[in-house]
Fold this sequence. Notes:
Blueprint: H1 2-14, H2 20-30, H3 34-37, H4 57-65, H5 81-105, H6 115-129, H7 136-142, H8 151-180, H9 188-198, H10 204-207, H11 217-237, E1 242-244, H12 251-266, E2 273-279, E3 293-296, E4 299-301, E5 304-306, E6 311-313, E7 321-323, E8 327-333, E9 342-348, E10 366-373, H13 378-384, E11 387-389
Parallel strand pairs: 1-3, 9-11
Antiparallel strand pairs: 2-8, 3-8, 4-7, 4-11, 5-6, 9-10
Helix pairs in contact: 1-2, 6-8, 8-9, 8-11
Amino acid sequence: SSRIGLIIKQWYQRRVRGDRRCITTILRVYYNTDVVEDNKYKFSPSGVYYAPPPGSYDSYVAFIKQLPPTQLPEVFGMHDNVDISRELQGTKLLFEDLLVTQAQTGGGGSGGATMEQILNDIAADITQKIPDMFDIEDAVEKYPVKYEESMNTVLVQEMERFNRLCDVIKTSLINLQKAIKGLVVMSDALEKVSGSLLVGKVPELWSKSSYPSLKPLGSYVNDLVARLKFLKDWFDNDKPNCFWISAFYFNQAFLTGVKQNYARKYTIPIDKLDLDFEVLPCDDIDNSPEDGAYIKGLFLEGARWDSKKMSLAESLPKILYDTMPVIWLKPNIAKDISTEGKYVSPVYKTSARQGQLSTTGHSTNFVLAINVPTIKPQKHWVLRGTCLLCSLDD
Length: 394
């Protein structure tokens, strides 16, 4: 164990930029005493990949030649579905390049709509779909700052964040429509917005003010409208019984609010608290818990949820994602929370699984780690690359 730690430290400092837990787990498969003591130590369940017994140089060459010419996912501990994910990613990149080429070379054909007409229609459609800004003064009046209810502050702050995003989107679209009509100058920023709209991508101008998202333009707009509706329903009907965790612009503020409510209710320092988790056998729920919060809207990648065994299970062939049921966030004293029989699953906002440290001290993509019940050992799911996602790419 200490040797593996030393190796990882050297790699971490010089070469590796990634998940320390993942690196440690992979190293333990290849760096252990069984590799030299077992004449056919298996690196994968099928036995295709194994440590060859002691032999001559020619025997090692022959062993290497009989290995599959293309590495199977199992050699890395992954599910066969990752081949599908890789091919989908390659296809996506190819079509993105083709669309960029088309936008640069395309033009209005005989009897067809011109680029200006198409752009104007797209801009008008998106502008019409996005509702009016939230009235922050009304929100503060209806949900004032309360010592015993941190969710009021969470709601108002979320409204402010989405107002800023919607303002950027609407302003750029209105100016683009004016530029098409010749009323204002088509600036470089508006040129980039128009180029992105034509190929169905979210403009970089929007992304800079937006929550992380890998969705194409149409899905992004629909997702944004759904998030705004979630906040509007919260404002109109009081806080929901079950929170759509993916709807938040800044998820960590909501999580802090959950712990803060508990800390103030039971007079416990918040820095001594952490979140425990319980997966419930339902997709929605009509009541709220006495303590903590119910959340929904997470997706499993690299595994599926077995509702009968209430445990993680292997992904079904050709099904890349699975929807998680309602999860109960249960604040508790950190030292009293056990991870035995659980897989500590990272939760990301997008499938990119990478982000930057923001000025708040939080990652722009990583949200938190959720303890999910499992029958298999935790290392199995680490090698599978199992995680929870707030949002898919489609």
